[in-house]
Amino acid sequence: MAQNDFSRGTMSRNILTMALPMTAAQLINILYNIVDRVYLGHLEGVGRLSITGLGLCLPVISILIGFANLCGMGGAPLCSICRGKGENEEAESVMGNSFTLLILFGVGLTAICLLLKRPILYLFGASDATFPYADDYLTIYLCGTLFVMIGLGMNPFVNAQGFGRTGMMTVALGAAVNLVLDPIFIFGFGMGVRGAALATVISQACSAVWVLGFLTGPKAILRLRRTALKLRWERVRRILGLGSSGFVMALTNSLVQILCNATLQRVGGDLYVGVMTVVNSVREVATMPAAGITNGCQPVLGYNYGAGQYRRVREGIRFTTAATMGYTAAIWVVIMAFPAMFIHIFNSEAELLSAGVPAFRIYFAAFFCMAFQFIGQSVSVALNRSKSAVFFSLFRKAFIVAPLTLLLPALGWGVDGVFWAEPISNVVGGLACFITMWLTVYLPLGHKPDGT
Description:
Order of helices and strands: HHHHHHHHHHHHHHH
Number of strands: 0
Number of helices: 15
């Protein structure tokens, strides 16, 4: 099939064709929650409590997104590999099974989280002062879980077919709706955090409708069909196995956020939980272009790998490495030079600035090494090496960040110890992931003749 054939043209152009709209989509997608935090952080009199309350919800939101990625980022690379082999019927079956899983997860997670939200939020570091804000936001947000599953989980199947711009429009539509509705609900109707959550749910519903409209329409190469919805265990196993990397990464990120918030609440109080919310907000924005580049390479690498074009796969890995490392080095310099500028975006209270500037410089001290983690994991996912991707997801967060978050404050580092855990993990975990990928994937591919 000549349409969106990634075995033609230069690898750099193919990757950029996918990565640029996917990067834009990733950045736009972050606006869902970032815009909420910006508006809520500037609510008069309760700004810091509001943004801290919303920060307590982020681990729950990350877990929900992790389940969406479990199906979407698990099924989409398999679709790319099947397309490269010319197996379009199997590719559609993978997409249909992924959709069914997303619906099942969405319904189950909504019920569980609504039932357990109070103990969950206090476990995650809420205080009596911040719980009402977290509860108001999370209750409404959870009502839109199904929209999150469909919008985020099915959009990778649009990108896997080579329609990067259409995939970008999925999140652009939702973000535009969110940008318009946020000030209306938060300030115009005086709904505060509830208004922010309602605007987000409506915007996610718009994204879900858009992506379903495309995947069931005539422009899609692979369509979402009823006949493909029935689950088959072998197919489900492959989807969940490959998607487990992104899921484990989201889950461990959430667990580390929970651990950080709980530790900061204990050694620093609500102020430092608020600082971590701002830090995480900036990190999400800063990492999105790197995620866009590495996610953009996946359908291209997967397609060429399925087609037996190993020389082109190696070329794509080299280009992705150079682009990702170049970007992360540049944004690292900016953040380290102007931390106060980023904090002002969310809140301008002197107390938050005083605590936030040194925390920023510690947390982002080795941010440029994050590129190694992104590259290593994305290549593993693209080439269906799920075990390696899962291991390094766990290694950096569960085996480095989590223990250090507990150990360093206990050794007398105080709140600084919580922030130091991240740069240490970036260096150790990132380098381990990249070097392993280079030795076990990139170099061996150089010994395999094309077409085998």
